[in-house]
Amino acid sequence: MKADIIRTLTHRITTLMFLIEQQLIEDKIKEYCRANDIALAELKWQPIPFSGEWGFATSFFQTAANEAKLGKGNKVPVPQKAQEIAEQVRGQIGSVTGISHIEAMKGYLNVYFKASEYAQRVVEEVLANGADFGRGEARTETVMVEYAQPNTHHSFHIGHARNTVLGEALARLVEFAGFNTIRASYPGDLGLGVITVMWIYEKLYKGQEPAGVHERGQWMLKIYAEATALLEKKQNETPEQTAQREAYEAERREMYRKWDAGDENVRELWRVTREWSLDELREILRMLDVKIDVWFYESDVDEPSKAIINELIERNIAEDERAQGGPVIVKIDEKLGLTKEKYRTAVVLRNDGTSLYLTKDLALAKVKFEKFHVDRSIYVVDSRQSLHFQQAFKILELWGFKQAEKCYHLSYGYVTLPEGAMSSRKGRVALFKEVYDEAIRRVLSVEAEKSVDIPDEEREKIATQIGLGALVYSLLSVDNNKDIVFDINEALSFDGRTAPYIQNAHVRANSILKKSSFRLQPAPFEYELTKQEIELIEQMSQFPQKVKQAAEEYRPLVMATFAYDLANAFHSFYHAVPVLQTEDENLRNARLRLVAAAKQTIANALRLLDIQAPDVM
RNA sequence: GCCCUCGUAGCUCAAUGGACAGAGCAGCAGCCUUCUAAGCUGUUGGUUGGGAGUUCGAUUCUCUCCGGGGGCGCCA
After folding, report:
1. What b/e string do you get for A501-538 counting C-beta neighbours within 10 Å, with b at 16 or more?
2. Which end of chain A, N or C, is more open, meaning fewer C-beta atoms within 10 Å of its C-beta?
């Protein structure tokens, strides 16, 4: 999968705005090599990695190595030969419109742009496209992203937040890159954990639930932890305690049995308590600006999933061991003809005929393919379930679904606390809402020290954008498969490589624009650009390419890193280069347009990360 | 035992097989009567876990060893 992704990445990785010049130079290089019988390797372009000037570069190491293999180099070392070729090519190209100069250096051919022309092109491109700057061409493929799927009857914690934020950023990236995008959520709303909450509620807390949506969600987690404590076998139990615990256990089992049999009272209790959880989930998704298109509930696919097992047995994919007291299984390695154990054997139906997680995922995949016609199905689920998904995808393949190869488990590291793994059962969790509230408190206390003039009614809203932004960014600025030890002080830091730093760049840009009394009008960049201006413009020009890369590699981190680099370039520019104080009117206009373009690009990048871009802070 | 994953500066993390491995935090030294200091500038800090291989070139690919985390027939 990874290899496929890399292969689809274009080699023209420099800015998309200079394709014509690049093509022209490429043609001249090819022509020269053909004429001189040089075995030219594929040309790969990259931005020149030095700040202060702007251009693109290619190297001739591979070409020199090819020559050496053909015995043509007279044993000249490859780097030296590469440099020689670069120099020869350079002498052959001559002058190109828009290019200021070309140099051969350390085996590379460096092509530098005329700064003023380049600056104008980039800035006008950004301003002309606005919120659409960086959007990829529309594609015909449909991508479904499945995320935001906590179990009901618990509360939403910071691990769920990572899942949701990762999925949402990915959906935004894929959508902006041009794909039809369907956002799907698959909450687990049944199972023993659910029954446990219902049991203790019915037994000890009926009618005592708090009123608020969040309060009620968190309260359910609390009574769940209490229930597991009551049901847990303790050391040195007295006979009375053992009897008590076993009685509780029997009650819970009985409730599960009734639920399964469709007992109307138990079902009603289930519907009501389930809705409490879903109310909280929907409220949190609203806070995170996440809009799910399709809801699949585990309870919806439970019954239909059992039916598919018969088909698997008939087709000789699954083996039915129920007659011998066993479950229904698929010996995946054996079916694939593997000698070493890799996918192992998967249980697809319990001995008693009830369905499992895997059963339901198979049924759900079928629905995704057949009803939603997805071309690519991405499952955002933590890395602990990677075997489960490998098994599911292989069974789909054995079953004959060609779409199986388009399923992709976006595995990510899970979130732990400094004191260890989070555990709903033990009640040891960092709840999203609590962290969220703390974030806002911290922002408000920072704001209190500053003298920024913000109306009171705006203050809370902006504090939310900043506090939540900091939290979201801390979850997205780590690569997918890396675990996160959640430290609230690090997550809610507002200095350095954080969302507030990026948001602050947006605010500063806005502040300049707000104070300028002149209308924003086109102006040529016909002056000596500072190195800060060139760096800022280069960052902006890379945005479309970063969108493409982040979407194709399924890595919001790429965008998170880019947003920081862009903001960093803006802050340096802001500090070093005067805009409003500039005397020359043309120069001032050009810089104002640059600021407007920077503000737009920062806003676009933040939007893809599901982070708000406030105008003041 | 088998499978997956991670190991880069004191800490937290980056780096399409390419130019001197980069940031933030922490530390040190500076910059606010000048477009918002949630900022800027400078600086200290590395045998990229060890070894071998492929390559003109390896943090990146392959193998092996060491160390951390996760997973492995009726939890989700």
Report:
1. bbbbbbbbbbbbbeebeeeeeebebebebeebbbbbbb
2. N
